[in-house]
């Protein structure tokens, strides 16, 4: 997998001082004023030191963990977003199978939000050790960003770390919100019941298990059924265990499953004093979110790039993004606004909060255009269109691939199916195959490069670039 070297430059290393100051240093990010080298977002206190330190440590641990092929190194700096009334700390595991987010809410902090925006924060090994030693319920002083930046030139030593950043990490942020944004609350456990349940889970390293509500807890089931919850690799929830002593409810979100359903992702939210820690698990321990393909159909639309540009101009690091409100402001249908939000998600600009049932705005300082060009199914679909390999006859499209053909069928409700092995194996659970993507684009009027246009190097229609440029950051 291709990686991009991302250099994190910090004024100094983050630290936790003996006096109880948690000094989180920031790298390059984006604020309401635009790109900033070392943004300063917050100065104040977190409500209780021990749960706050333990929850931050959990997010940092996820960033350094690999649950599939754990012998490989994983190192990422968590992302922090200030939405004004809350701070969000986010990370992905190195295998992209676990997404972690800590939301520090308005009633969990007492201080001043100095700006809105997103940046990376330095969480080094010394800081992780210090966070693990924090005890007591006194408030924890927190600084997000270097204090006194305006009066200091920082000509001295700058802490830099060069970290391989796989493009799949960026795609994972897009896939998580696309896969889980339609999930509903499936179970709610009190603190004591949650502790008993999590500690009693079998430590199945690779298997997929199913859970069903049973009174005040969850129990294992033999197979999926309506109301069931999928959990793959229960050991991936281990970062919740040290936090159970602080009380709070455990809420589990998932899709409405049918009998015999395939494995799906699950969202686990633990309420803490003034905070929420969310862990999202991929459907199987061997599957990372970057390969799920849930965003592909939305990204291949003719208008999605232009719509994303329109919608992005209306975002202002909002803690809650309301598609209905955006649709009215942008004069667009709600379904196109949702597709535009998915497009913005591929650039790391949109996430989803199940507790609020709403999207939120963030910015990630990574090259989304590079990630777009590395998506193999979108690239293959573009090649099929350019080769004029798609022919529709009524409700059936014939897609010629080298020496054989695949057929894409359109059902009465517009859903597309394919005769290829990919579709037979996954039935759309990991996004559309390249044949469906190409057939759908062809049905909407995209035709690729014609012979006449190939002489001049021009495409027949500017809209045909929608697939090729699917994840370009809207600016």
- Looking at the structure, the CATH topology of the largest domain is DNA Polymerase III, Chain A, domain 2
As residue ranges, the low-confidence spans are 148-157, 450-475
| Relative helix content | 25-40%
Given helix and strand content, the structural type is alpha+beta
| Strand percentage | 25-35%
State Rg. 23 Å
Count of alpha/pi helices: 14
- Tell me which CATH architecture of the largest domain applies here: Roll
Distance between the termini: 27 Å
The overall average pLDDT, rounded, is: 81
Would you state the CATH class of the largest domain? Alpha Beta
InterPro entries: Znf_SWIM
Biased composition (Basic and acidic residues): 442-461
Domain SWIM-type: 397-444
Keywords: Metal-binding, Zinc, Zinc-finger
Explain what the structure shows.
With 475 residues, this protein is α+β, with helices and mostly antiparallel strands. It folds into 4 domains: 3-166, DNA Polymerase III, Chain A, domain 2 (Roll), CATH 3.10.150; 177-291, DNA Polymerase III, Chain A, domain 2 (Roll); 296-362, Winged helix-like DNA-binding domain superfamily/Winged helix DNA-binding domain (Arc Repressor Mutant, subunit A, Orthogonal Bundle), CATH 1.10.10.10; 370-468, no CATH class. 26% of the residues lie in helices and 29% in strands. It has 14 helices and 26 strands. It has helices spanning 49-63, 125-132, 167-180, 191-200, 296-299, 304-312, 323-330, 334-345, 368-373, 376-386, 421-426, 434-443, 451-456, 465-468, and strands at residues 3-10, 15-16, 21-24, 26-31, 34-36, 42-46, 79-82, 87-92, 98-104, 109-113, 117-121, 140-144, 159-166, 184-189, 208-214, 217-221, 229-232, 250-254, 266-272, 275-281, 350-353, 358-361, 390-393, 396-401, 404-410, 416-418. The protein has a 10-stranded antiparallel beta sheet with strand order 5-4-11-7-8-9-20-19-18-14, sandwiched between helices. A 5-stranded mixed beta sheet has the order 2-3-12-6-10. A hairpin with a 2-residue loop joins strand 24 (396-401) and strand 25 (404-410). The longest helix is centred in the N-terminal third of the chain and has 15 residues, at 49-63. It is globular, with a radius of gyration of 23 Å. The two termini are 27 Å apart. Mean pLDDT is 81; it is low at 148-157 and 450-475.
């Amino acid at each position: 997998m291709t990686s991009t070297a991302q250099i994190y430059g910090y004024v100094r290393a983050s630290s936790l001082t003996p006096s109880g100051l948690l000094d989180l240093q920031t790298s390059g990010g984006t604020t309401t004023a635009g790109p900033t080298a070392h943004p300063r977002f917050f100065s104040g206190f977190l409500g209780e030191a021990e749960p706050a330190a333990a929850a931050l440590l959990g997010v940092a641990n996820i960033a350094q963990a690999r649950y599939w092929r754990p012998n490989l190194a994983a190192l990422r700096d968590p992302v922090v977003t200030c939405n004004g009334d809350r701070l969000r700390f986010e990370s992905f595991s190195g295998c992209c199978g676990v997404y972690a987010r800590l939301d520090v809410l308005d009633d969990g902090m007492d201080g001043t939000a100095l700006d809105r925006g997103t940046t990376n924060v330095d969480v080094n090994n010394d800081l992780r050790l210090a966070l693990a030693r924090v005890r007591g319920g006194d408030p924890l002083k927190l600084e997000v960003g270097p204090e006194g930046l305006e009066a200091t030139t920082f000509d001295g030593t700058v802490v830099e770390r060069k970290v391989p950043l796989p493009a799949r990490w960026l795609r994972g942020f897009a896939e998580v919100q696309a896969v889980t944004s339609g999930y509903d609350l499936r179970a709610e456990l009190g603190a004591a019941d949650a502790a008993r349940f999590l500690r009693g889970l079998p430590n199945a390293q690779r298997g997929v298990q199913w859970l069903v509500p049973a009174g005040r807890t969850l129990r294992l089931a033999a197979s999926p059924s309506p109301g069931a919850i999928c959990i793959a690799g229960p050991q991936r929830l281990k970062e919740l265990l040290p936090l159970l002593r602080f009380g709070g409810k455990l809420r589990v979100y998932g899709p409405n499953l049918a009998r015999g359903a395939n494995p799906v992702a699950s969202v686990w939210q633990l309420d803490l004093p003034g905070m929420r820690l969310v862990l999202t698990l991929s459907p199987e321990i061997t599957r990372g979110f970057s390969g799920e393909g849930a965003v592909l159909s939305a990204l291949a639309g003719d208008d999605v790039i232009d719509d994303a540009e329109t919608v992005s101009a209306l975002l202002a690091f909002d803690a809650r993004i309301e598609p209905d409100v955006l649709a009215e402001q942008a004069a667009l249908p709600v379904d196109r606004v949702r597709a535009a939000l998915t497009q913005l998600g591929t650039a790391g600009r949109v996430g989803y909060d199940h507790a609020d049932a709403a999207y939120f705005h963030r910015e990630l300082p990574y090259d989304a255009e590079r990630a777009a060009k590395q998506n193999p199914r979108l690239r293959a679909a573009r090649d099929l269109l350019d080769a004029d390999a798609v022919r529709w006859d009524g409700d059936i499209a014939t897609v010629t691939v080298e020496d054989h053909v695949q057929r894409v069928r359109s059902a009465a409700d517009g859903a597309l199916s394919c005769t290829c092995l990919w579709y037979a194996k996954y039935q759309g659970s990991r996004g559309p195959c390249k044949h469906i993507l190409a057939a759908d684009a062809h049905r909407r009027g995209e035709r690729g490069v014609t012979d006449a246009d190939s002489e001049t190097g021009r495409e027949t229609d500017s809209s045909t670039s929608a697939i090729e440029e699917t994840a370009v950051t809207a600016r």
